[in-house]
Design goal:
Blueprint (H helix, E strand, L loop, with lengths): L1 H15 L12 E6 L4 E7 L12 E4 L2 E3 L2 E6 L4 E7 L10 H16 L3 E5 L7 H4 L15 E5 L1
Parallel strand pairs: 6-7
Antiparallel strand pairs: 1-2, 2-5, 3-4, 5-6, 7-8
Helix pairs in contact: 1-2
Bound molecules: coenzyme A.
Length: about 150
Amino acid sequence: MKYFVYTVNQLVEGIQEFDHPYLDSRRTQVFVQDNGRNLCTIDVKLSNYLGESVIEDQPVGPGITMPGLLLTYYGINHDLTVENIYVKPEHRGQRIGTIFMKHLFEIGKKAGVKKFSGVADPKTKAIDYWLKFPGFRVPDPNRPLYLELNF
Ligand SMILES: CC(C)(COP(=O)(O)OP(=O)(O)OC[C@H]1O[C@@H](n2cnc3c(N)ncnc32)[C@H](O)[C@@H]1OP(=O)(O)O)[C@@H](O)C(=O)NCCC(=O)NCCS
């Protein structure tokens, strides 16, 4: 249990230190929700120097939205999953997604994460985007949108 808390704290600290020329890191907000049984969600809000959020929440049902940059950490398997990453269209192409993900791999690895995983959005063909990250692979051909990176 202590190990779980340590890892989550390291992840949150690292995310708050994420530095990018387009973003105002002092405005970064990270919300952690402990769901019990060694599972937590990490909701990240990134903003630019104008105070605009560069991340967009996603509607998933009537009156229900999913945070636009949402991670889950499962302490039993040391598995960090990218549940959602949605950069607002007008802020895309500034390497926010790429640099954030690379930073996350680095801090996650240091904090003891053993596996990164994610499911590519079928609507945006993001599988091509994910496969550009070294180490990310599709382990099961029956689940062509499921990606993993193991340390
Ligand atoms: C995918 C996403 C998070 C990337 O964030 P970003 O900050 O705009 O991306 P970056 O600036 O770091 O990288 C841009 C590169 O990714 C490529 N890219 C972006 N979206 C892509 C997609 N759906 N498929 C393939 N390549 C994609 C761009 O063509 C560009 O390639 P280049 O480096 O060869 O020029 C962003 O485009 C987005 O929010 N897309 C819509 C939602 C989505 O598909 N999210 C992933 C859910 S699994």
